[in-house]
Specification:
The complex is a heterotrimer of chains A (248), B (260) and C (238). With 248 residues, chain A is of the alpha/beta class. Chain A has helices at residues 2-6, 48-55, 77-81, 99-108, 116-125, 141-153, 171-187, 199-205, 223-229, 235-247; strands spanning 10-19, 22-32, 37-41, 63-68, 71-72, 84-87, 159-163, 191-195, 208-213, 216-222. Chain A is 38% helix and 25% strand. In chain A, the strands form two sheets. Chain A has a six-stranded mixed sheet, with helices on both faces. Chain A has a four-stranded antiparallel sheet with strand order 2-1-4-5. Chain B has 260 residues and is mostly helical. Chain B has one domain (2-254). Chain B has helices at 2-17, 19-42, 57-64, 66-87, 90-94, 100-134, 149-178, 184-198, 212-225, 228-254, and strands spanning 140-142, 145-147. In chain B, a hairpin with a 2-residue loop joins strand 1 (140-142) and strand 2. The radius of gyration of chain B is 19 Å and the shape is globular. The chains are: A alpha/beta (248), B mainly alpha (260), C mainly alpha (238).
Amino acid sequence: MSENKKLPVLELKDVTKQIKKKVIVNHLNLSLQQGDIYGFLGPNGAGKTTTLRMIARLVFPTSGEIFIHGCSVSREYRKVMSYIGCIIENPVFYLNMTARQNLKLSAKLSDKQIDPSRIDEVLDIVHLEDVKDDKVKTFSLGMKQRLGFANALLCHPSIIILDEPTNGVDPMGLVEIKELIKQLSEQENITFLISSHMLREMQDLCNRVAIIQNGSLIETGAADDLLKKYAVDNLEELFFACVKEARR
Amino acid sequence: MKKIGSIVAFETKRMLLSKTTAIYAGLYLINFIISAIFFKLYGSEYTVLTVGNAQSFPVWHLQASFLYTGIFLAIYVAQIIVQERSRGTIKLLLLRPVSRPTYYISRVVSIFLFSVLLTLMMIVLSYVVGLLFFGWGEQMIWGSLTSSGIQGVLLTLLCGLAFAFSYFAFGMVAMLVSMFTSKLLESAIIMGVLLMAGQYFELLSSIKQFAVFHQMLFFHINIFEKPFAYNVTSILVLTAYCVVCGIIGYLAFRKKDLYV
Amino acid sequence: MLKQLKYDFSKLVFQRKYLFILIAVSLFGILYSVLLFQKGLAGTQIVSSGLATFRPIYWLLCCYVMCDVISSDYHYKTLKIVVPYAENRAGYIVSKGISSAGISLMILLVYLLTSNMTVLILDSGHTWGLSGYSFGLLCVGAIVGIFFLESMISFCIVVTESEAATIGFSMGIVIIMFIFESVGQIAKYLPTMWLATLPSIVKTEAGIGLIVIAVFFVLSLLLCAGTIGIFRKKDLFA
């Protein structure tokens, strides 16, 4: 256990993704510690979602290695996936099944023994308790996003990867998700890696950030330190400053 | 193993409850009713039946359903392979501790179960239609074989199993094709055209035994009519299709980037 | 509706797969005509025999093309983008039908053209056309057959909203008709046979033949009307 605390929870070592001649992710190095809420920022097409896909092993890196709790994603896939909960790009479910049925299927595929009450618990957490027996095809985008979040929480992960988690969520939902992320990080020491364009929300949430552009990491570190370094007041200005600098 | 079981159980439930399976059942029923009516009106001239009774009805219609069953199986394979990718629901499984080999094996098992389901569906529906139009009858007559009662039913089921195995081999070919297509429709139509063209292998007597299409048409018949050595070759041919397509399909899937 | 039709035809032209289909059909026409010429058949017989062989493949291709055109918006979930721009939903569905029928007819015409041209190159004495066929009646037969198939497919996709169910249903219907073709008495009245048998029906059994065709035509019209009626009022959660 103590050895795991020293190890980064998630580590990307020189990860590259190249398709034919186009480099999508370029020698990316990232390191997340337990309990971090890590903002993964970048303009459109920077390579954020591709990076998250590589962590989730939907896409294979051209080179480099990814480790979760010291286990290689390529060699110990099953062990690694038992630590992770994720929403990649947009949550997808079987539309003709209810929310509960989709989560039940997901729970069956976990390596951990998931109590049936956990399904109701996570649906309550994301405030979908009233629609848990409705078919997913009747859900709005925001409801699917919440269901995706519930799915990510289902198997007691130690790291949760969220790709645009607030996409389509109403303002009330936004506040609830933020509160939930903070609570889970503080109380259960869950690590979050969040990719988002909602920089104001990320400002309140993230203790560390990484900014990526054209597949390359242009800045990383504690949010407060970076704000001081660039003499800016908020993440939005930091983002623009870093991207401008990189473009020069 | 447990995960393969869970995924297969889920797929089985989906296949049993889906609209598409109901449509297939409907089309088989129409086909069998047409056949029964034609036999009643014109005798065996315009149908595959030579004997008008429920006992013989299923076995005669197995071979006749070549195009139907092949296309339905190809569509099912495309649904569980291509459509899962195009809709992104493959993510729901692969973002859990489900390795790609586990996922792939569950697909293979599902294809086998679907070919068995289609066969059973045909057998049950044809018994029903046969009973309605002709009654049970005294004997099951099929080529040089005669039987009756439970023995006849068991013979029919054995034929069905052989039939399902040959279609499973075709399903594996369909799975291989599905690994390289991006739309369900493309995969289904490629297999449909292959089925149409594959019948022409019957003209090539020296190699037809090695064509999966020949086995789809005749394997369930040849196990009773042909010598043991011939049948062993046929089993090996079908197994080879399953193994080779399975391996190549897995190699294609193993390292496939899934932008879902 | 004209705007929708223009949009659908532009999409067809833009997508290379239809071009590949036309090229494949042309190649088949050329190769099969050469094969039959080498067997010693006369020019118009080559074209007619080729058409008889091509016919089943043609109907499967029509299934593909029609399912592809009509269900593409369902597949890509672009209904919500396209339908609001359509003048009305009826226009949207009719436009899909016309464009899929158009490309289906073009496949047949390309085949006949390449087949005839190949024979003309091989046998300079060949006269354009088919053995005992009228080209015009062939086209009419094809159009009515295409209309029947297209009405069934549209109805299925609008009701089921399932691509798999639609392709299964459409190919199943075509195969049922192939099965009926084995019965000589009714074969010539089947939609899949009209592109081959309509000229002879008009010559020999005009009364019965035209009644059968009219029945299928009315059935297709009713199916189309039903499809449009359902689609106009359907909630689209795509």
